[in-house]
Design brief:
Organism: Paracraurococcus ruber
Protein name: Two-component system response regulator
Distance between the termini: 10 Å
Strand content: 15-25%
Structural class: alpha/beta
InterPro entries: Bact_response_regulator (IPR050595), CheY-like_superfamily (IPR011006), Sig_transdc_resp-reg_receiver (IPR001789)
Keywords: Phosphoprotein
Length: about 130
């Protein structure tokens, strides 16, 4: 797994961005960029070269699910590994995310070990 790849984390809650960044740092991922909403994330993804997206579900004005759909609809980004983070573990949310092409799913709260496991699974299929 290439730990030098660029990772984009997306969350409208600054504290959560800091937590995810710190967890990634513990896992030796140091090339991490942040976006505070789906539209900003999409602009960064289209302008940059990212190997992984870790996005929160509940954001305004563009949700993580909407961001995922935009990424999957973009010919250049469609194969980008995408991990969704949410506080909701409702089955219909998991089903909706899977249907939209999510690579993996993490339910809050989570730790570095859970994050590593999910990233490893996603990158094994990338």
């Amino acid at each position: 797994m290439d730990k030098s790849m660029n990772v984009l984390i997306v969350d409208d809650y600054k504290t959560m961005l800091r937590i995810i960044r710190n967890l990634l740092k513990q896992l030796d991922f140091n090339n991490v960029e942040e976006a505070t909403d789906g539209q900003e994330a999409l602009a960064k993804l289209r302008a940059g070269n990212f190997g992984l997206v870790i996005s929160d579900w509940n954001m305004q004005p563009m949700t993580g699910l909407d961001l995922l759909k935009e990424v999957r609809a973009d010919a250049r980004l469609k194969d980008l590994p995408f991990i969704m983070i949410t506080a909701e573990s409702k089955t219909e949310n998991v089903v909706a995310a899977k249907a939209a092409g999510v690579s993996n799913y993490i339910v809050k709260p989570f730790n570095a070990e859970t994050l590593r496991d999910k990233i490893e699974k996603v990158m094994a299929h990338a």
